[in-house]
Amino acid sequence: MAAELKNYKKNKQFLLCVDSDGCAMDTMNIKHFNCFGPCFVQAWEITENVERVLERWNEINLFELTRGINRFLGFARLARELYPNDEDIKAFESWTRAAKELSEKAVFEEWKKTGNHVFERAYEWSKAVNKAIVSLPEESKIPFEGVRDGLKNASKNFDIAIVSSANYAAVTEEWERCELLQLTDVVTTQQDGSKAHCIAELIKKGYSRDRVVMVGDAPGDLNAAESNSVEFYPILVGDEKGCWQRLGGVLDKFMRDGAKSEFELLKNKFYKNLSAK
């Protein structure tokens, strides 16, 4: 069973960090279309321009360079766009930018400390999202083709860490049901802090930075890798299967000589691909 971050101990010399939604699991679109956006509309009791609000939610979270941001950052951004003069929303947005941990627990604690109704709204919204995700049919929450083989091959030489900003229970349920959790060594999610923080904490377990790769589908994954001076392997939207199939060859080269030129080329393709969406 994959360990939690606080109990994890390094096994191999190399570490592969892997995002979940939209990267390993083909779940990002359906969760935002069916859960995050509709629950946001309900949380703010929006009755006018609902279609445009939902469209804007998806733009922020799926189709712009903010793709894959933490749920509370997305919540804050759209709330601020809709209600630009609300001081409580401004306070919530400022908190999301500075908080070390962006989780339900952290939001709940800040609500109790400040009494700010936006924290209460965000907390209840997040719980509603989690409930809606659990209610999605299992056949809609599956990995991209190539993920299982990619992780299995990588695990021969790499420790495998899930590094996700999603809810811990949802991540572990999906990976275990799809028989992927057994291929991983450690699980980090929003309860452990940002992706950058989680990678930093994993490195402290004894890994050299030049032996760590982050696999992700969003700019936040790239930023988390770069802030820790580790390499980034992108999963391109629309070419997820191909990216997973090519991962093994890049990792082999990475172990031999660092594959610097390959990773730089992949980063350029990543930005070009996402900017075209």
Would you spell out the secondary-structure blueprint of this structure?
Layout: E1 3-4, E2 14-18, H1 28-43, H2 50-63, H3 71-82, H4 87-98, H5 104-114, H6 117-135, H7 147-154, E3 158-163, H8 168-177, E4 186-188, H9 195-203, E5 212-216, H10 219-227, E6 231-234, H11 240-257, H12 260-275
Helix pairs in contact: 1-2, 1-6, 2-3, 3-4, 5-6, 7-11, 9-10
Can you offer a commentary on this structure?
The protein has helices at residues 28-43, 50-63, 71-82, 87-98, 104-114, 117-135, 147-154, 168-177, 195-203, 219-227, 240-257, 260-275; strands at 3-4, 14-18, 158-163, 186-188, 212-216, 231-234. By secondary structure, the chain is of the alpha/beta class. The chain has a six-stranded parallel beta sheet with strand order 1-4-3-2-5-6, sandwiched between helices. Strand 3 (158-163), helix 8 (168-177) and strand 4 form a beta-alpha-beta unit. It is globular, with a radius of gyration of 18 Å.
Largest sheet: 6 strands, parallel
Distance from N terminus to C terminus (CA atoms, Å) equals 37 Å
Strand-pairing-aware structural class: alpha/beta
Low-confidence stretches: none
Largest sheet: spatial strand order = 1-4-3-2-5-6
Mean pLDDT: 94
Secondary-structure element series: EEHHHHHHHEHEHEHEHH
Number of strands: 6
Number of helices: 12
State the helicity in percent bands. Answer: 55-70%
Q: What integer value in Å does the Rg equal?
A: 18 Å
Please state the overall shape, judged from the principal axes of the Cα atoms.
globular
Strand content: 5-15%
